[in-house]
Amino acid sequence: MFIDVELRFYAKIWLNSEKNWPLMTHFPKVLVVGAGLIGTSIALALRQIGSEVQICDVDPKAQSLAQDLIGSGAGVLAGEYDLVIIATPVAMVFEVLLAEYKRNPHSTFIDVGGVKSELIRQVGQFPELASRFCATHPMAGREISGPSSAQSDLFEGRAWILTETEFTKPELTAAVAELVSDLGATPYRLSAQDHDHAIAGISHLPQIVSSILAQSLANLSDGSLLLAGQGLRDVSRLAASSGELWSQLLIANREQVLPGLAQISTSLKELMESISRQDNKEIKAFIDRGATERARIPGKHGAKPRKYSYLPVVIQDQPGQLAALFQECALAKVNVEDLTIEHSPGQQTGLITLALSEADALILQQHLLDNGWAAHTPRA
Known about the structure:
- Helices cover 44% and strands 15% of the residues.
- By secondary structure, it is an alpha/beta fold.
- The chain folds into 3 domains: 17-190, Rossmann fold (3-Layer(aba) Sandwich), CATH 3.40.50; 196-294, Orthogonal Bundle (6-phosphogluconate dehydrogenase C-terminal fold); 309-375, Alpha-Beta Plaits.
- The strands form 2 sheets. It has a 7-stranded mixed β-sheet, with helices on both faces. The chain has a 4-stranded antiparallel β-sheet with strand order 9-10-8-11, covered by helices on one side.
- The longest helix is centred in the middle third of the chain and has 25 residues, at 192-216.
- 32% of the residues are buried.
């Protein structure tokens, strides 16, 4: 099923058997054009669900590595493809899509690029192609690019945006949504403009801010950087991304990115003035606004944010303790959403903090106490 940005559930569009559109699990032959991180990860995931996959790339080294990773079935396949996936840089998507359509006029086509408005406009000039095309964008990735970074489970639990043209057949969109679901992601439907606006805020601007922060490190000595904690690593992680990839994305989405940059610039100027005036109230308000907006980021699968309770459990540093704890969770019939482990080398105990709903946290705490575990009071 589809989910829109307001998390309304759409009914599945069941396929008309007379039209013979392939269901998700029946894309027997797939061509992936582009052996980068996303293209190779999709190919790996498709192989796991039984599709035959050919992958190609203008870089023979990348193609060779991707083919070896995919293994058997990654060579040239006979006949027309059931699905063609364009996984090239955004500047090349339309050109490659048009070329592949001429070679495979009866295939289903999708792309995985990060900008949609211009692509949808270009494809819309070719109604026959547009009827067989659904633009998509998996919200997954790594700061390390290339096929060597590919992972078959890269899309597990991630959002995957679908953007139709005005000519896209509903049956095709339903089949693509099934594909997305089978690869472990949750399909969302967005217009091209809504997609580009959202992506500017949740992807493009974070990349820019991370790169700006990393550039500021030029003012620090190597000795100073030895003192860095996890916060710097977290915020600067995206700065390791590909400059070639991001230059294309930022230019392609400039109409949405530039207003966001202007807003950031204004906020920074106001903060500088507040610090200069030693205005504690305004500085606090600046930090608090950030905390408020961050709290709006959803939980897993794009669901609305949930308020978890965190249950601390002290366990002995001995084999089987963690497995035994999870067995207790199963016996208590509670759902653990997340966990953290704190343990120092040589320490005889460890602290496991389990994230659960408020009700489940109380149920589990009592169950653990009744069975001799050191379970402490849950915290919000």
